[in-house]
Specification:
Elements (H helix, E strand, L loop, with lengths): L1 H6 L6 E10 L4 E9 L5 E8 L5 H8 L12 H10 L5 E10 L3 E9 L20
Parallel strand pairs: 3-5
Antiparallel strand pairs: 1-2, 4-5
Length: 131
């Protein structure tokens, strides 16, 4: 249930069991749940640390854009998409920071490939040495 709510953009959703009633006569169990949707998080920024990749490129790669609700956010899927792009030697960690209520920032720690391996069209700044 929580996973479904998170997929719908309610990253802060909580589900709690309020009451369990066992009916021994017919072997049934009644469950009363309390659902708090929290607020849908809105992506405020995406930053890649350790690799010179523009935020706009990272947003396209991860499938979430600044200003939109984080619907379907899955850090494992984000990692897989970044790794599959070939823009990184490795993706070390992905952290979601919640700021100012509903705003969320995504920080990706990644290792850049060899300098100059990609051009500016792909969002990687070549080696300043020109070599």
């Amino acid at each position: 249930m929580v996973r479904s709510l998170v997929d719908d953009g309610f990253t802060l959703a909580q589900v709690r069991i309020r009451r369990l009633d066992l009916s021994p006569g017919d072997s049934s169990l009644s469950v009363v749940l309390s659902v708090d949707l929290g607020s849908a998080l809105v992506l405020d920024s995406v930053r890649v640390r350790g690799a010179d990749v523009r935020s706009s490129v990272a947003q396209k790669l991860i499938g979430h854009e600044v200003g939109e609700a984080l619907i379907g956010y899955d850090p494992q899927r984000v990692r897989a998409r970044l790794e599959a792009s070939g823009l990184f030697a490795s993706v070390d960690s992905i952290r979601l920071y919640i700021r100012e209520g509903r705003l969320a920032s995504l920080l990706v720690d990644a290792e850049a490939p060899a300098p100059g391996a990609f051009d500016l069209v792909l969002g990687v700044v070549p080696d300043a040495g020109g070599g």
